[in-house]
Design brief:
By secondary structure, the protein is an alpha/beta fold. Helices cover 33% and strands 14% of the residues. Residues 37-520 form the Carboxylesterase type B domain.
Length: 543
């Protein structure tokens, strides 16, 4: 079948739209490559999936960096080689190795896993649609862009281009070693460097999919949100994105304090090499991927920030603690949409502070909070066992997710003077019975399918669909203009003081004040130069 040619641009015809004028300047190859499922990017030609019934095409499993294998294991991501012929981009590429063996894998797994995926409804390159780049979660230990929940088709129906990608996880993504530091750039954050490489790939290639490289919104959940918060604080990310959405995460803080220091990461790496009996980098690189991954596996009952390979201060991607950067107004000057869920702590329940009986809860409080314990107990009471149960869960959710997410909201608005929109997700239904960590993702993507975090649930109802359409509109509006608002939606005010306004995304969508300001202010007051107490490394004992 012969591809359609460009529109006819006859002299004397008055063009009614700028897009038509632009089309006249394009070559037939560029126009037809977007009208069909074959396009040309910097590295070569791709054949994607045909358009679905609503005109959305998917290009899957696109290499955005060279395979990090052999001598490139534990190296900064390198440029991708030129593609030979036309690459089949109709299926996802391999997922990166998971450090969490109990979590399900999606498709094949390989060290060769640095792939991106694009969903687009554009017909012509000059459309310059807003771009949304998804960062998946998983505690930096598991996860993949091929998870069905992350299918970007529904978001793309709202006029944006959606990109997702894999990044190295666990020991492959976050090993810090003195010998690795001698390769060029400091080690410890290869997974974050992969994320930067993916964003650079978007900047160079997204026009081919009809996207605008000057209107890129990053959005992510959990470790994906932590990643974005870290990158907002990183000078290496300057100019790679223009707006950010944080869903439940920001600094990679936890109940054990702030993220790992440079020296802590090196000590962890040295112990790992000794454990494997491979004292040199050459020996480490000759080990099979399976043996390395098995030795670096993580138990989900423990804090990955303390017991697994995860982001650290490397002096390169992460020059200092992200909270310090936000506190002094040196974070990236990008508008922000961010928030957290009502039942965040449930996902981390094995890590809850000892609290049974109530006397043990009081002792835990005294160990962690010292002279401030009376004030802590006024905010997180434990006079009865029911109170202690709830307060211990609230504290866990605040320390792992909520407080740091609020700090990014507050600092980006009031110190960095950016437009910020804050939300509190509380929605429940038979389909989504508790507002746990991750519960909002189904609604953001418009994929109301079974979710591992929700377990066996009921069938989505009209109310579930309505909330999803509302959130899809808010998220894509923000990506388009920097504001989530439109005439058809409940008004979402900017976050600022003294109004302290949040939008509750619940069974009723309504404006509320910050639901936990006093708790957040207390926890924030414990920071010294943005850093949570180092004593929490050993004082916070998991239940």
């Amino acid at each position: 079948m012969t591809p359609p040619g460009p529109p006819q641009c006859k002299a004397g015809i008055v063009m009614q739209a700028a897009i038509i004028l632009g089309l006249c300047l394009l070559t037939p190859r560029v126009i037809s490559s977007l009208a069909n499922s074959t396009i040309t990017i910097e590295s070569g030609n791709l054949e994607g999936q045909p358009a679905n019934d609503l005109g959305i095409k998917a290009f899957l499993g696109i290499p955005y960096a060279a395979p990090p294998v052999g001598k490139l294991r534990w190296s900064a991501p390198q440029p991708v080689s030129a593609l030979s012929g036309v690459r089949n981009a109709t299926t996802f590429g391999a997922s990166c190795y998971s450090a969490a063996p109990t979590y399900p894998q999606h498709g094949p797994v390989s060290e060769d896993c640095l792939f991106a995926n694009v969903w687009t409804g554009a017909l012509f390159a000059i459309e310059a649609r807003p771009v949304m780049v998804w960062f998946h979660g998983g505690g930096f230990q598991f996860g993949s862009s091929s998870v069905p929940l992350y299918n970007g088709s529904k978001l793309a129906e709202h006029g944006v281009i959606v990109v997702s990608f894999n990044y190295r996880l666990g020991v492959f993504g976050f090993l810090g070693l003195e010998e690795l530091d001698q390769q060029g750039t400091p080690s410890g954050n290869y997974g974050l460097q992969d994320q930067l490489a993916a964003l650079l790939w978007v900047k160079k290639n997204i026009r081919a999919f009809g996207g605008d490289p000057e209107n890129v919104t990053v959005f992510g959940q959990s470790a994906g949100a932590h990643s974005i918060g870290i990158l907002i604080a990183s000078p290496l990310a300057t100019g790679l994105f223009h707006k950010a959405i944080l869903e439940s995460g920001a600094y990679w803080d936890s109940e054990h304090g702030s993220l790992r220091t440079f020296s802590e990461a090196r000590a962890q790496g040295a112990a790992f090499a000794k454990q494997l009996g491979a004292p040199s980098l050459t020996q480490l690189r000759t080990l099979t991927a399976e043996s390395v991954n098995h030795a670096g596996s993580w138990n989900a009952s423990t804090d990955p920030g303390l017991t697994a390979f995860a982001p650290s201060i490397d002096g390169y991607v992460v020059p200092t603690f992200p909270a310090q950067t936000f506190d002094v107004g040196k974070s990236q000057k990008v508008p922000l949409l961010a928030g957290f869920n009502a039942a965040e702590g449930v996902a981390f329940l094995p890590r809850i502070v000892p609290h049974v009986p109530t006397a043990r809860y009081a002792q835990s409080a005294k160990t962690l909070f010292g002279v401030t314990t009376p004030f802590f107990l006024s905010l997180y009471p434990g006079d009865t066992q029911a109170q202690a149960n709830l307060s211990a869960l609230d504290l866990l959710g605040d320390l792992v997710i909520r407080e740091q997410t609020f700090e990014t909201i507050d600092r980006q608005a009031n110190i960095n003077r950016q437009d910020v929109y804050a939300y509190y997700y509380t929605y429940t239904s038979a389909y989504s019975p508790i507002a746990v960590h991750t519960a909002e993702i189904n609604y953001v993507f418009g994929n109301l399918i079974p979710s591992p975090s929700l377990g066996p649930t009921g069938t989505p109802t009209a109310a579930d669909v309505d909330l999803s359409m509302t959130m899809l509109a808010y998220w894509t509006n923000f990506a388009k203009t920097g504001s989530p608002n439109s005439a058809s939606l409940p008004f979402w005010p900017k976050y600022s003081l003294p109004s302290d306004a949040f939008l509750e995304l619940g069974n009723n969508v309504t404006v509320i004040p910050n639901p936990f300001r006093a708790r957040f202010q207390f926890l924030s007051s414990l920071r010294k130069n943005g850093v949570l107490p180092s004593s929490w490394r050993h004082d916070f004992t998991d239940n």
